[in-house]
TrEMBL record:
It comes from the Bacteria. One of its GO terms (molecular function) is hydroxymethylpyrimidine kinase activity. It catalyses: 4-amino-2-methyl-5-(phosphooxymethyl)pyrimidine + ATP = 4-amino-2-methyl-5-(diphosphooxymethyl)pyrimidine + ADP; 4-amino-5-hydroxymethyl-2-methylpyrimidine + ATP = 4-amino-2-methyl-5-(phosphooxymethyl)pyrimidine + ADP + H(+). Pathway: Cofactor biosynthesis; thiamine diphosphate biosynthesis; 4-amino-2-methyl-5-diphosphomethylpyrimidine from 5-amino-1-(5-phospho-D-ribosyl)imidazole: step 3/3. GO terms for cellular component: cytosol. This is Phosphomethylpyrimidine kinase. It comes from Kitasatospora cheerisanensis KCTC 2395. InterPro entries: HMP/HMP-P_kinase_dom, PM/HMP-P_kinase-1, Ribokinase-like. One of its GO terms (biological process) is thiamine biosynthetic process. Its EC number is 3.1.26.4. It is an enzyme of class 3 (hydrolase). Keywords: ATP-binding, Hydrolase, Kinase, Nucleotide-binding, Thiamine biosynthesis, Transferase.
Length: 266
């Protein structure tokens, strides 16, 4: 009998999506598709489907802390990804845990769902800025989240660099500003140490079934980092994976369907 070597391990700290398209469920699917072992710390449970978020319930901070310590102290991690944190208390709890994280931390600063439903208390935004972003290796805001975190409204690609610089000043080592809400091709901007910049471009697919895109991209980047890729390469490969997942997104329920995490395997 032989013992197989474990694949790279990635931990997601996020909320559960009962519809399976975003959150913990999307994270674990993306991690599996990209060849890493996904593990989870659940921060909140949502009642959610293709039409929106009908409600959510936070887990106690002690439960979040215990899940994290159980995984990190025994199994270990090569990358960590955060998503929905919901409240000031949970943002503070997770930020404290990540202050001495043993691996790169990818922060998806989830503020609202694809349907526009709030997933972060308004009063917690300042805590994300002050406590969570400084412990992030990478932060991956969309343009709505850029406005929420910096007060800046980005209307074109020229504004993405200024927004990335404003976010970089808040403490993360790298910033990926996602331009998916702009017209034209899907362009994202990565800003790193010493002003290093990389643009990533992909064709925009005529498919409205894009639920879980942000969660999936952040998880894909974390998976690539866990496999030893540097940040620009990890973002490039994750972007290619998510672009295909969007192209293959499928209808589910009566509203917005999910991206297809297993499009390559199919």
């Amino acid at each position: 009998m032989t013992t197989n070597t474990a694949p790279p391990r990635v931990l997601t700290v996020a909320g559960s999506d009962s519809g399976g398209g975003a959150g913990i469920q999307a994270d674990l699917k993306a991690m599996l598709a990209l060849g890493v072992h996904g593990m989870s710390v659940i921060t909140a449970v949502t009642a959610q489907n293709s039409l929106g978020v009908q409600g959510y319930w936070e887990l106690p901070a002690d439960a979040v802390r215990a899940q994290y310590r159980s995984v990190v102290d025994d199994i270990g991690v090569q990358a960590i990804k955060t998503g929905m944190l919901a409240s000031i208390e949970l943002v503070e709890t997770v930020s404290g845990l990540l202050a001495d994280a043993p691996a790169p931390v990818v922060v998806d600063p989830v503020g609202v769902s694809k349907h526009g439903d709030a997933l972060l208390a308004a009063e917690a935004v300042a805590t994300v800025r002050e406590r969570l972003l400084p412990v992030a290796t990478l932060v991956t805001p969309n343009l709505h989240e850029v406005t929420q975190l910096t007060g800046r409204t980005v209307t074109d690609e020229s504004g993405m660099l200024d927004a990335a610089k404003a976010l970089h000043e808040l403490g993360p080592r790298w910033v990926l500003v996602k331009g998916g809400h702009l017209e034209g091709e899907a362009a994202d901007l990565l800003l790193g140490p010493a002003g290093e910049t990389h643009w990533y471009r992909a064709p925009r697919h005529d498919n409205r079934h894009t639920h879980g895109t942000g969660c999936t991209l952040a998880s894909a980047i974390a998976a690539q980092l866990a496999k030893g890729q540097d940040m620009p390469e990890a973002v490039s490969n994750a972007k290619a994976y998510v672009t295909g997942a969007i192209a293959h997104g499928f209808a589910l329920g009566s509203g917005i369907g999910p991206v297809d995490h297993f499009w390559r395997q199919r």
